[in-house]
Amino acid sequence: MSQALIGLGGNVGDVRATLDRAVAAFCDGADVRLLARSADYRTPPWGVTDQPAFVNLCLKVATDLSPRALLKRALAVEASLGRDRASGRRWGPRPVDIDILAYDDVVLDEPDLHLPHPRMTDRAFVLVPLAEIAPDWVVGGLGVADLAARIDTAGVTRLPDRA
């Protein structure tokens, strides 16, 4: 069984409820088993800054699915929760976004799937929640906790746990 790191975020609607539904749909306990879930974090928008703040979180999962099948699952969950990637603005507002950040030590460079995620080490909204659940996972020769310690985390705020 392989392990993968997954990033989720959104900023449209009841984001935390949508992310909870996304985690439940993505991690069915059979093909994808949840190993760890970070806290939810309020984060400033990235790329397109004239939009509401995001809520982001990360997952560590175990799976028998291939990276391509895992991506297909992520896209299906996004679509089921109202995400239309075809007409949405890149880095713009969205109800949910699910990214495969890493899959074991697989390195892929395909048109629609890059592993590890090529920009994950530049993004505090990924590294802060990821360091919570996978601090020793190595990306580009450095552990996630070390990468998180080197990045500007201004505006990344842990949200209170919900009952």
Which key phrases capture this entry?
single chain, 163 residues, alpha+beta, Alpha-Beta Plaits, six-stranded antiparallel beta sheet, 10 strands, 29% strand, globular
Provide a short characterization of the protein structure.
With 163 residues, this protein is α+β, with helices and mostly antiparallel strands. The protein has four helices and ten strands; from the N terminus they run βαβββαβββαββαβ.
Structure description:
The strands form three sheets. Strands 1, 2, 3, 4, 5 and 10 form a six-stranded antiparallel β-sheet that branches. A two-stranded antiparallel ribbon has the order 6-7. The protein has a two-stranded antiparallel sheet with strand order 8-9. The chain has four helices and ten strands; from the N terminus they run E-H-E-E-E-H-E-E-E-H-E-E-H-E. It has a single domain, classed as 7,8-Dihydro-6-hydroxymethylpterin-pyrophosphokinase HPPK (Alpha-Beta Plaits, 2-Layer Sandwich), CATH 3.30.70. The longest helix is centred in the middle third of the chain and has 14 residues. It has 163 residues and is α+β, with helices and mostly antiparallel strands.
